[in-house]
């Protein structure tokens, strides 16, 4: 098991080698039922791992080029390998948002960074806007020196125009929620080319964090994964 002193900084440095960053964390409190840690005892702390912008994209592409065959979910596989290696080094258990039964990653993220959802459901970050993601988490069986997050200004509250709700040709996002089937049918259909190649039009319409927006090839990759193309 790692010693708490200085461990969080060392983990952050290890993740940066692959373009990943720590996205906050917290110690579980008495009365909670946390997931199990590396030795199957209840975890006492969690650190979230993710990305800002497309920083991991070059590392992921280099890894993918080295694979001998097709992989069903290559980005998830790469993320699990990278985060798993860091977990092994630092005596943690690595978990993924795709693991079943699903763990409350979005609730953990809101708790760890004080973020709130945008109208698109993606958490709004004060610096990255909608251009960030959570790729996994590290569970520890000892508490870590983690400062409680202060809730940042929720940028969506200051956005009167809400262009993120006006750019989708099939109005997939509304006050009623996400019309998943309408979005999927459009992306797969004859008129979905701009979405397939350039990403979600609603997401791209958001004025915040545009310096971190994913490049077109990354957005096309994510959209293809969403649509099963």
Give the topology, please.
Blueprint: H1 7-16, E1 21-27, E2 45-52, H2 57-65, H3 74-90, E3 93-95, H4 105-113, E4 116-117, E5 123-124, E6 132-140, E7 173-174, E8 177-178, H5 180-188, H6 193-198, H7 201-205, H8 216-227
Antiparallel strand pairs: 1-2, 2-6, 3-6, 4-5, 7-8
Helix pairs in contact: 1-3
What does this structure look like?
The chain is α+β, with helices and mostly antiparallel strands and 229 residues long. It has two domains: 7-153, no CATH class; 159-227, no CATH class. The chain is built from eight helices and eight strands. The protein has helices spanning 7-16, 57-65, 74-90, 105-113, 180-188, 193-198, 201-205, 216-227; strands at 21-27, 45-52, 93-95, 116-117, 123-124, 132-140, 173-174, 177-178. The strands form three sheets. A four-stranded antiparallel sheet has the order 1-2-6-3, with helices on both faces. A hairpin with a 2-residue loop joins strand 7 (173-174) and strand 8 (177-178). It is globular and about 50 Å long. It starts with 6 loop residues before the first helix and ends with a helix.
Task: Describe the structure using short key phrases.
single chain, 229 residues, alpha+beta, 2 domains, 4-stranded antiparallel β-sheet, two-stranded antiparallel ribbon, 4Fe-4S dicluster domain-containing protein
Query: How many separate helices?
Result: 8
**How does the overall form come out from the CA principal axes?**
globular
Average pLDDT for all residues? 93
Work out the radius of gyration: 18 Å
Secondary-structure element string: HEEHHEHEEEEEHHHH
Overall number of strands: 8
């Amino acid at each position: 098991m790692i010693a708490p002193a200085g461990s969080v900084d060392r983990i952050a440095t290890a993740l940066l080698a692959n373009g990943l960053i720590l996205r906050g964390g917290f110690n579980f409190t008495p009365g909670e039922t946390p997931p199990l840690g590396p030795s199957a005892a209840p975890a006492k702390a969690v650190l979230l791992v993710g990305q800002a912008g497309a920083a991991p994209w070059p590392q992921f592409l280099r890894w993918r080029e080295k694979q001998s065959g097709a992989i069903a979910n290559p980005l998830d596989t790469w993320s699990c390998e990278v985060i798993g290696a860091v977990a092994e080094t630092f005596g943690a258990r690595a978990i993924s948002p795709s693991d079943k039964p699903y763990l409350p990653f979005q609730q953990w993220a809101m708790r760890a960074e004080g973020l709130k959802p945008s109208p698109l459901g993606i958490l709004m970050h004060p610096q990255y806007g909608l251009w960030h993601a959570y790729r996994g988490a590290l569970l520890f069986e000892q508490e870590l020196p983690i400062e409680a997050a202060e809730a940042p200004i929720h940028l969506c509250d200051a956005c009167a125009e809400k262009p993120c709700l006006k750019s989708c040709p099939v109005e997939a996002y509304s006050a009623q929620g996400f019309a998943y089937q309408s979005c999927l049918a459009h992306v797969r259909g004859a008129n979905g080319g701009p979405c397939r190649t350039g990403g979600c039009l609603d997401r791209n319409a958001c004025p915040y964090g545009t310096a971190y927006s994913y490049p077109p090839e990354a957005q096309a990759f994510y959209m293809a994964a969403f649509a099963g193309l």
